[in-house]
Amino acid sequence: MEYGSILGLCWTAIFVCYVIGFRSQNGFFMLLAICGLIALLPLEFYLGIRIKKRSLQLDINLSFLFSFMNILSMFMYACLLSGCIEFIYFAYIDKGELFNSINTMLASADIKELYRQTELSVYYEQITEMIQELELLSAFDKTMLLFNNSFLTSLILSLPVAATAYFYKPATLK
Predict the structure, then answer these.
(1) CA 103, 152, 156, 71 torsion: positive or negative?
(2) Residues 97-120 pLDDT 10s
(3) To pair with 106 at 20 to 30 A between CA atoms, which of 50, 61, 148, 167?
(4) Contact, 154 vs 70, CB < 8 A?
(5) Whole-number mean pLDDT of the chain?
(6) Measured between alpha carbons, how far is residue 164 from residues 46, 57, 97, 150, 168 in Å?
(7) CA 12 to CA 84: how far, in whole Å?
(8) Interval 35-85: pLDDT, tens
(9) Contact of 134 with 15, CB cutoff 8 Å
(10) Whether pLDDT at 172 is above 80
């Protein structure tokens, strides 16, 4: 739970950076969120190694399955924590402002011209339709979309993190 809380709060911080970036139309926060996603990958492996070290301190021999289940529970706790915070945002704080900001950004002449110049106007239409459909979803549905994305990513990432934790041989325990 401890490591899942750390991971969930980091995922929430990245979500907040995306929201601030879209709502303020500020690229710095979007870049910060992307850098945060990249920086989280080593943190996830580090937390897996910490689980291995803690199990060795407690004289518990981790099998791969046990290591996988520990890592998966860490990720699932992070999914639950970030999902709860995202639901609170969509249900009580947002009131549709996020998707209005995205629609405003997409409706700007610069974006339309960029898509026209790169001959991606078909994709522009698809993106605007998708945003309009997402705007109609309830707060619970929006949260479930993000939760499902986090869940699938967690399932995929838990395998290499568990393998790293299982095969890690610490030189010394601190």
Answers:
(1) positive
(2) 888 888 888 888 888 888 888 888
(3) 148
(4) no
(5) 88
(6) 9, 18, 42, 21, 6
(7) 10
(8) 999 999 899 899 888 888 888 888 888 888 988 998 999 999 999 999 999
(9) no
(10) no
**Do residues 168 and 115 touch, judged by C-beta distance below 8 A?**
no
Which residue is associated with the tokens 């522009």? 124
As given in the structure block, the two tokens for residue 24 are 């303020």
Tell me how far CA of residue 87 lies from CA of 24, 73, 138, 147, in angstroms: 21, 21, 10, 10
Using left for φ > 0, alpha for ψ between -120 and 50, and beta otherwise, residue 61 falls in beta
Q: How many CB atoms lie within 10 A of CB 13?
A: 16
